[in-house]
């Protein structure tokens, strides 16, 4: 077993569900929660260092305990125990736009022996981490991505609600490459996540996980910005005729970018898998399953928080620029969300 345990940063709905699920393994690993806010740190200590998860709207709340905790909000704060101890396995569940700022205080604890697993929406986080925190390929961590197909939300700090037990997750190592130094910790992290009973993760080869990420991203590119701009639930994407008319032009830009991505070249049937028709089918299916939900971007805009738009539609625009593919609709949505956010 990995004696260093698993660290989790970001206690929103997904981070809380993942941490709770890890502690529900019959022989659970040590789990250390990295907290940025003093108020949450003190609240966590006051309630006996426990997280609570409610499964189903009418379900009872179940607590999990046994967590360690580090306060990482202030480099000079006396609460920061083991500030120099290396982190071998880190799960990141903060918003994509907060990834670099969240990891900066613990940058010195991460290196070639570390594995970082990103349970986040959007794409482009790894490029940002490499640019700002880990520029040297010889010393940077091994990266993993996780996809969550669960519906969850935060009821109150340290208390999450999971819609049901029918969701699933998928994890994989980026590029299928693990350094020799990180290999034992990476393998342990994968095995622990697969064993965690609630999140129900499966391990996937990188190229399969990448395609799953892209399909999820295409849905988010439509649902997130438009629900945020209009202040509506996901189901409005299918109920409103004007929004339905936007689907194919927007998905057409996304499909053009996806089909030209270097990592997908040479794969069988990639043009069909990433076609407008395939992306539209995925979009409609996802909206039908989440019709009554409010998207994360809609909630962020309502609360005056920063959004992940630069890692959703913004990622499509940047990839298109590199390949000479114009994405004016995606670019417009990025600009509108940024403008909307600055009106708060």
Automatic annotation (TrEMBL):
Its EC number is 1.1.1.169. It catalyses: (R)-pantoate + NADP(+) = 2-dehydropantoate + NADPH + H(+). GO terms for biological process: pantothenate biosynthetic process. One of its GO terms (molecular function) is NADP binding. It comes from the Eukaryota. One of its GO terms (cellular component) is mitochondrion. Residues 209-339 form the Ketopantoate reductase C-terminal domain. InterPro entries: 6-PGluconate_DH-like_C_sf, 6PGD_dom2, ApbA, Ketopantoate_reductase, KPA_reductase, KPR_N, NAD(P)-bd_dom_sf. Catalyzes the NADPH-dependent reduction of ketopantoate into pantoic acid. PANTHER family: 2-DEHYDROPANTOATE 2-REDUCTASE, 2-DEHYDROPANTOATE 2-REDUCTASE-RELATED. Belongs to the ketopantoate reductase family. This is 2-dehydropantoate 2-reductase. It comes from Aspergillus heteromorphus CBS 117.55.
């Amino acid at each position: 077993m990995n004696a260093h345990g698993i660290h989790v940063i970001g206690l929103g709905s997904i981070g809380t569900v993942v941490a709770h699920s890890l502690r529900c393994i019959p022989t659970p690993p040590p789990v250390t929660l990295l907290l940025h806010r003093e108020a949450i740190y003190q609240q966590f200590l006051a309630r006996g260092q426990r997280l609570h998860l409610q499964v189903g709207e009418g379900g009872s709340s179940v607590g999990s305990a046994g967590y360690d905790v580090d306060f990482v909000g202030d480099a000079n704060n006396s609460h920061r125990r083991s500030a120099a101890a290396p982190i071998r396995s880190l799960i990141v569940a903060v918003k994509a736009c907060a990834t670099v700022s969240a990891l900066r205080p613990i940058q010195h604890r991460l290196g070639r022996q570390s594995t970082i697993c990103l349970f986040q929406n959007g794409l482009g986080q790894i490029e940002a981490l490499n640019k700002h925190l880990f520029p040297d390929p010889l010393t940077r961590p091994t990266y993993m991505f996780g996809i969550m197909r669960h519906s969850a939300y935060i009821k109150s700090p340290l208390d999450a609600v999971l819609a049901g037990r029918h969701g699933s997750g998928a994890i994989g190592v980026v590029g299928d490459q693990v350094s020799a130094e990180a290999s034992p910790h990476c393998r342990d992290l994968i095995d622990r996540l697969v064993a965690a009973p609630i999140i129900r993760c499966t391990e996937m080869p990188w190229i399969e996980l990448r395609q799953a990420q892209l399909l999820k991203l295409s849905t988010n590119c439509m649902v997130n910005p438009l629900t945020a701009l209009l202040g509506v639930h996901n189901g409005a994407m299918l109920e409103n005729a004007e929004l339905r008319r936007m689907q194919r032009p927007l998905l057409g830009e996304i499909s053009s970018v996806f089909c030209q991505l270097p990592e997908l070249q040479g794969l069988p049937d990639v043009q069909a898998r990433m076609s407008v028709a395939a992306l539209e089918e995925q979009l409609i299916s996802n909206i039908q399953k989440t019709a009554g939900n409010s998207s994360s971007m809609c909630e962020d805009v309502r609360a005056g928080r920063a959004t992940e738009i630069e890692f959703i539609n913004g990622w499509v625009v940047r990839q298109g620029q590199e390949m000479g593919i114009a994405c004016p609709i995606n670019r417009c949505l990025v600009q509108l969300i940024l403008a909307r956010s600055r009106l708060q």
